Fold this sequence. Notes:
This protein has five helices and no strands. By secondary structure, it is mostly helical. It has one domain (6-131): Nucleotidyltransferases  domain 2 (Four Helix Bundle (Hemerythrin (Met), subunit A), Up-down Bundle). The two termini are 24 Å apart.
Amino acid sequence: MKAKNKEERILLWLDKSNSTLKEIESHIENEFINTSANRIYFACFYAVTAFLISINLESKTHSGIRTLFGRHLIQANLLDKKFGKFYTEIFDYRKEVDYDEFTDLEMEDIMSIFEEAKELVAEIERLLSEKK
């Protein structure tokens, strides 16, 4: 289904984010650690994309989204700076688990970043609800 307007697009990206957070719980239960790291990144990516759409910004690359996130959410002081560091961390984890055959994360790492991912998504949802 193709979204017709900006509000629909924002809701679709947020829905993808929240669906992915639920998916991660299953991956964690089944101890799919590297898959969890990938999905954690994407849950956050989808939420960040929703926010950027709300301010009429988009990028065709993950690096572009990361740059816009830093500029328009972190440097603009809309989110705590810890989320800037976190987004860089999960961006790097995702690349490592997807492309480096020797990367293995620990369940302890995944649980920690999963909690922070849920917090980031909630903060973005808060920002979007304040914009209404």
